[in-house]
Every structure is written in structure tokens, then in C-alpha cells.
Design goal:
Rossmann fold; 16% strand; 12 helices; single chain; 2 domains; seven-stranded parallel β-sheet; three-stranded mixed β-sheet; alpha/beta
Length: 332
């Protein structure tokens, strides 16, 4: 199979690229050329430069195109114009954050309604899905939609602190308090990118998936308290957890110049996320997530600590965490 990834070197897509190569897929990446994976043919162009992209792609047709970096309806409409009639399958990477908030039922299936009044990122993903379904129904555009949830590989899951930062581990190593939203008992699903890749490659070139929607997650659900405890255990420390309400965190984050935290917290992490993976297992019977978070996060931390340049401590994140702790303590 001849496959094109738009992007392909991110947190999730790197793992999928490697799994695709292991499966013998002829893989191309379309990106600006800053990162290259051995075995992948690189097509260099900025996807936002339509003329340059059309030039690079003009002699190609594809068995499957996957866009890892489309976030708005305008971007998927651009993809439709580029690839309609030139690919047998188009996979759109949506988001599990698009599912109904707050949930009315405790377990999420692909039939759970899409509605997120809190986060424009999620609303944009919903609008992208709506547009693509319309193109599928009216123009036979061969779509498959995938909704990843919280998937990690070279990022750290934490309530506060950018996922590409080392800040949360630095605080844990120093014995400093860390913040967890709510009372920390809400259940959350974390999926290692290598597990995600096992299922995803089973969708590529699979004609039965055209017009279908899937989420791909682990079956392991952990409380946010336990997630942070496991972060600490991975570095031989104990987590010093301070709890703050999600609304309080969002309000202080706004004041401290972290407006994006409101959407990702009130529009996603503040709610439980437990997934029924029966559908992806029907279409990809070999899929089974096997990497427990306690194991996977150790590899993630080792990756950060293998290069000092990756161990970025963001003092702005520290300032926000310290203020939250100070003000929440005064409120008690």
C-alpha cells in the first residue's frame, strides 16, 4: 500500500509511522522537512501553501491519506479538494474530547453524542467531522474518522504544566506540591502511542472502515490521584498532592496568562473518560492495549531524562502552581 501522512512525526503519528513501516507499508510524509524517519519518503511542503502542495503531489495517487494536523473545517475542505478522486481512503484525526460534556452515561461509545460547549478545539473537531460526513454522503469521499483520547509517548500527563515540559517531574523530585483538579477521584484513560498504533494500522487500507468512526484507547482507567502517584513512583518519590476545583484552576489560569487551560480542563479532563473499545476490536481483532501506565510512563520519563535539553522547567507553570496552592490554602 502507498500511504501519505500529512505530518507524521508527532507524539502519536511517530509511533504509527513506525508501525506502518514494520507492516511493509510504503509510507510518505508531507511536512516542512524538519524531521525525517528512516524508511519514510519525505515530500517537503507546508500544507498551508496550497500551490506548493499541489506541485509536490501532482504525480501521486494514494491508497490512504491521513491528516494528523487538521483542526478546522477549512483545513479538511482543503484536503477534500486535494484528495477527492486521488485516494481510496482519507483518515481524519478527530478527538475524544468532542464527546458530550458532561456525559449522561458513564461509558463512552462511538455513538455517544458530540457536544462540547467548553472548548473551541473540540467544537472545531466536531465541525470537521460534520463536513466530512457530508462529503462522504454527497460526494463519496472515502472517509474514516478516528478519535484519540489522551495518548502519550513523549509527553507527560498532568493537570497543570505543558505536556512537553518536565515541570511536573521536577517538582515531584524536589518534594514540591503539585495540583490535581477536583478531589482527584475522577477516572481517566491514558493510552500509550505504541498501543494506539497497533489498532490504527489495522484501519489503514481497510475498506470496511469507510464511513465509520472509531476511538482507540486503553482499557485501563485510573483516577487522577493515581496517575500523579504513578508519576511520582516512576522516579522513586511520593506525590505531594494539593486539590483545587476545576473552576478555581481555570479562573486563576486566566489571570496568569494560561487561557488554554480552561478549555482543556473544563472541556475534557474535569470529566470521567471510560471507553468501550468493542468497535475497534471488531474491525481490528488483533488489537489489545498491553502497555500499563505504570510501565509506559517510566519509558516516557527516561526519554525526557536521556537528553537535558528535553528537561524543560517552565517557571510560568511553576508560578501558576504556586499561586493555586497558596490561594487554595488561604481559602481553607
Amino acid at each position: 500500500m502507498k500511504i501519505l501522512f500529512i505530518g507524521g512525526t508527532g507524539n502519536i503519528s511517530t509511533a504509527v509511522s513506525k508501525a506502518a513501516l514494520d507492516k511493509g507499508i510504503e509510507l510518505f510524509h508531507l511536512n516542512r522537512g524538519s524531521n525525517h524517519l528512516a524508511g519514510v519518503t519525505s515530500l517537503q511542503a507546508d500544507i498551508r501553501d496550497l500551490k506548493a502542495v499541489e506541485t509536490v503531489l501532482k504525480n501521486h495517487t494514494w491508497d490512504c491519506v491521513v491528516d494528523w494536523i487538521a483542526f478546522t473545517p477549512e483545513e479538511v475542505e482543503r484536503d477534500y479538494r486535494l484528495f477527492h478522486g486521488k485516494t481510496k481512503q482519507y483518515i481524519f484525526i478527530s478527538s475524544a474530547s468532542a464527546y458530550q460534556k458532561p456525559l449522561l452515561l458513564p461509558v463512552i461509545t462511538e455513538s455517544t453524542p458530540l457536544k462540547n460547549p467548553f472548548w473551541d478545539y473540540s467544537r472545531n473537531k466536531i465541525a470537521c467531522e460534520d463536513l466530512l460526513v457530508k462529503r462522504y454522503r454527497e460526494n463519496d469521499f472515502p472517509i474514516t474518522i478516528v478519535r484519540p483520547s489522551h495518548t502519550y509517548r513523549n509527553i507527560l500527563p498532568a493537570t497543570i504544566g505543558g505536556s512537553a515540559e518536565y515541570t511536573i517531574i521536577d517538582r515531584i523530585r524536589k518534594g514540591l506540591p503539585i495540583v490535581v483538579h477536583g478531589d482527584g477521584t475522577s477516572l481517566w484513560t491514558l493510552t500509550h502511542a505504541d498501543d494506539f498504533a497497533k489498532a490504527f494500522v489495522g484501519l489503514i487500507g481497510n475498506g470496511y472502515t469507510i464511513g465509520e468512526v472509531f476511538h482507540i484507547t486503553s482499557d485501563e482507567a485510573l483516577s487522577w490521584n493515581r496517575i500523579h502517584e504513578l508519576l511520582a513512583e516512576a522516579v522513586g518519590c511520593k506525590a505531594n498532592i494539593v486539590h483545587c476545583t476545576s473552576d478555581f484552576i481555570a479562573d486563576i489560569a486566566d489571570e496568569e496568562g494560561f487561557p488554554a487551560l480552561r478549555g482543556s480542563l473544563l472541556g475534557d479532563k474535569a470529566y470521567p473518560a471510560i471507553f468501550d473499545n468493542a468497535k475497534i476490536k471488531r474491525f481490528v481483532p488483533s488489537f489489545q492495549a498491553t502497555i500499563r501506565f505504570a510501565e509506559g510512563i517510566r519509558s516516557t520519563i527516561e526519554w525526557f531524562e536521556s537528553d537535558p535539553k528535553r528537561m524543560v522547567v517552565n517557571e510560568n507553570s511553576n508560578r501558576l502552581i504556586n499561586r493555586l496552592i497558596e490561594e487554595s490554602t488561604h481559602k481553607k
